[in-house]
Amino acid sequence: MKKTRVAFLVSFLVLLSVTFMMGNAYGEMNFSVSGLELGEPDEGGKFLVTRVYEDSPAEHAGIMAMDLLVEVDHLSITDKSASEVENALSRRLGEGGSAVLTLLGNSGKVVTWLKPARYSIEKRETLDFCQKLIWQNNLANAHWEQANQLFREAILGNVSMETFEKEMPQIAQGITQSRLAISGLSLPLHTSLDVVALCAKTRNLYANTQFLRNDARAKMQDYAKARWGDKTFIQKRWDKIEPAVMAADKRYSHGDIMLDQVLRSIGYDRGRLSVEY
């Protein structure tokens, strides 16, 4: 019982952290709206630019990796940390403002204007759709992991029947809610028909994944009740449940492939989504 409580506490914390990282209403997912990453200042208070993201405000401003950031709006930043400067610039640009940066580069001192990115409506809507889809899938994945953990603990006899019958329906409800949320996501309106079709297929694949997962979860629930405390059955679980699990996993993998296609259609990849959106 103690092991089960610990396991579910860990699962809850994972779910909570995923929700926190995704931000409020999906709008605080990025950690550098400017597309600029800085190292900590040297003894003179100059910040090394460690990375500039492609097609970001920083790149459009002509900033390059290995440049040294000296001033922001002609004011000294020697008393700031790298994260404080990055966050301040991200907030400024996120609110539609701009900033004047003074840097030292290969050609000497450079003053440039950092302006917010002006994404097209097509790109903005498609990015918004993909971000919400990823967020809902992360929540669904956490529920699925909980179902697997609860099933295992039931077979091993580490959880009471009362706890099992109380928590498994709650997990089922969570998976169902994720499926409905994914199915209800609005498709981009101001984009090509090809991209809309890709988005619709991706959404349907992920939603169907949750339907198949709930089917697999129901099978887990039935077999757990039939084999309560049978520790040898945990090794045989896949004989009866594996087809359902594999069907869900296959659909999920196909959805991942389609999501990558959606992002590539507007010139993005998943690794950049969390940074530049």
Give me the secondary-structure category: alpha+beta
Largest sheet: 6 strands, antiparallel
Instruction: Tell me the number of strands.
Output: 6
Give the assembly state of these chains.
single chain
Q: Give the overall form.
A: elongated
Helix content: 55-70%
- The tally of helices reads 8
User: Distance N terminus to C terminus?
Assistant: 43 Å
Number of domains: 2
Rounded to an integer in angstroms, the radius of gyration calculated over CA atoms is 24 Å
Order of helices and strands: HEEHEEHEEHHHHH
Low-confidence stretches: 1-31
Content of β-strand: 5-15%
Present the secondary structure layout.
Elements: H1 2-22, E1 36-38, E2 47-52, H2 57-60, E3 68-72, E4 75-76, H3 82-94, E5 99-105, E6 108-114, H4 121-155, H5 161-183, H6 193-226, H7 237-265, H8 270-276
Antiparallel strand pairs: 1-2, 2-3, 3-4, 3-5, 5-6
Helix pairs in contact: 1-4, 4-5, 4-6, 5-6, 6-7
Question: Please, could you describe this protein's structure?
Answer:
There is one protein chain. The chain starts with a helix and ends with a helix. It is elongated and about 75 Å long. It is of the alpha+beta class and 277 residues long. The chain contains eight helices and six strands, in the order αββαββαββααααα. Strands 1, 2, 3, 4, 5 and 6 form a six-stranded antiparallel beta sheet that branches. The longest helix has 35 residues, at 121-155. β1 and β2 (47-52) form a beta hairpin. The chain folds into two domains: 2-27 and 120-276, no CATH class; 36-114, PDZ domain (Pdz3 Domain, Roll), CATH 2.30.42.10.
